[in-house]
Amino acid sequence: MLAFWRHGFLLCPKRLAAFALPALLLVACSGDQSVLLPPQRPADGEFAPRVSTVQRASDSEHQRLLSAFGGEYRAPKARAVLDEVVQRLAKAGEGQIGAYEITILNSPAVNAFALPNGRLYVTRGLLALANDTAEIASVLAHEIAHVTAQHAVERAERELESALVSQVVAQVLKDPAQGAAVQAGSKLSLAKFSRQQELTADQISVRNISRAGYDPYGAGRFLAALGRNTAFRNSGQNRSADDKRLDILSSHPQTPERIAAVTAAARQIGAPGIGERDAGRWLSAIDGIAYGDDPRDGVVRGVRYLNSALRIGFTAPEGFALEAARDMVIGVSASGAQALRFDSVTLKPDQTLQSYVAAGWIDGVVTTAVETLDIAGQPAVIAVGKGTDWTFRLAAVQVGNRVYRFILAARGSGDPERPMRALLASFRVLSAEEVQSVRPMQIRAVAAAAGDTPAAMAARMPEQERAQDLFMVLNGIERGGALVPGQRYKIVAE
To answer: How far apart are CA 8 and CA 256, in angstroms?
Structure first.
């Protein structure tokens, strides 16, 4: 699989990429971007030829990718525009671009992928960040360039020849069910490319979108949007955009370098103003698509987590950044000194809550001092755990035969007892009214009236943190920029 944009948060859970969290809590992004997905079972019978093996791997990766990124997202208007873009790219490719099938992934992450067999993937988070047809064309052209330049086959064959993925999953997780949960939550890239491969794909994409009639400067605009989005996410955690901890793949070109390279390539073609952009059509295509967390997986509102399917909610310690995945939450404090994980399991018929916690659900962590509690009218326990470099507070709340598990880890010997007890005190079973209030957020394209400002438009997004900054990121507006009356802009609303 070919991951598209390689900087900052796009390869990892959107707020957790910079920290080396304990492997017992979650599998974060590693420096070499190795796949951390459950190992594939070998096919029965003899080994197939190499091309067939790559094809079979692509089919398997398709299913695993759908699982990791929340499945397929249905957006007919956006899909129609994407299909047209690919057709135009194919027509302009002089036979080098064959048939491609596009899938929109139900993920708020900003990412795109391609498999060697011609399957293309874009997340709905990426669709929301793009501002015109030239920008989205640059994304697809970049992915297609990886395939036509044989980067896909090279990487796929190397992945097939390596047992690293299976070893890591087996050694760290030791539990297929837990491995699947981490897979769904972490949304990791399934491949990496060299710095030169990324730059090559950028150069090819600029030429191809120009031949297809799109504005060749679209690649630079989208890379700039990507940089603004990364800076926005970083600033929410009080980290500078150039924080070296975020440079998790230093062998790849940084966003400013890529912007300079694609802009220079576009200038070789012509001056700004050439080619199609059609921002209006693109805004119409994405008007109404979901934004942010899928309510079926639970939603994050600041430090609050609400899950309408499980009918539970809780509040994390102040300053934590949370990310919701399917029936799981992972989080980290601003300093990186504390980490949080929440998930759930089902008790066996003959198992009590106390015996379950005493037995320990984390390999390598000794559980002691098990204390019985009552949390929101439900039986619960809290315990102490000690690892090599981290001190843990473990807690479990039983609702029926389901157990909701919390792990709060503190680096070193400090005991995170107080924040864990505050977290448990916030746990509750949601009322019917609260369940109904957990509604999906959507991208809405609204026209600016005379006198409207970014602050006025942001006021229409009351559920979003730093709404004005988010509005400017989504719409590519620089600090101090003015709105054009009558022009449509993206906001996030119910």
So the answer is: 13
H-type helices in 438-466, by residue range?
454-458
Name the most confidently modeled range: 167-181, 265-279, 306-320, 383-397.
Answer: 265-279
Cα–Cα distance list, 449 to 134, 340, 446, 459 (Å): 26, 44, 9, 14
For residue 236, the model assigns a pLDDT of 61
| C-beta contacts of 302-309 below 8 A and 24+ residues apart | 302/465, 305/329, 305/342, 306/430, 306/434, 306/438, 307/430, 307/438, 308/430, 308/435, 308/436, 308/438
Among 447, 122, 440, CA closest to 279: 447
CA distance 225 to 478: 10
> What count of other Cβ atoms lies within 10 Å of the Cβ of residue 239?
16
**Residue 359, Cβ density class (10 Å: 0-12 exposed, 13-18 middle, ≥19 buried):** exposed
CA-to-CA distance for 199 and 142, rounded, in angstroms? 10
Instruction: Determine how many CB atoms are found less than 10 A away from the CB of residue 349.
Output: 6
DSSP state of 241: T
> Helices marked H in 41-163 — which ranges?
50-68, 76-92, 124-129, 133-148, 151-161
The predicted pLDDT at position 239 comes to: 43
CA distance 279 to 134: 9
Beta bridge partners of 123: 105
Q: Quote the CA–CA distance of 460 and 86 in Å, as a whole number.
A: 35
Cα distance between residue 152 and residue 98, in whole Å: 14
Round to whole Å and give the CA distance between 380 and 397: 4
Global confidence as pTM: 0.68
Q: Which H or E element spans position 425?
A: helix 417-426
Q: Is 40 left (phi over 0), alpha (psi -120 to 50) or beta?
A: beta
Maximum Cα–Cα distance across the chain: 73
In three-state secondary structure terms, 208 is helix
Burial string for 367-397 (b: 16+ CB within 10 Å, else e) reads beebeeeebeebbbbbbbbebeebbbbbbbb
What's the alpha-carbon Rg for the chain, to the nearest Å?
23
Closest CA to 126 of 215, 3, 36: 3
Count of Cβ atoms closer than 10 Å to residue 465 Cβ: 11
Edge-first strand listing for the sheet containing 101-105: 2-3, 112-114, 119-123, 101-105
Q: What is the DSSP letter of 450?
A: T
- Which token pair is 171? 């050694």
| pLDDT > 80? residue 479 | yes
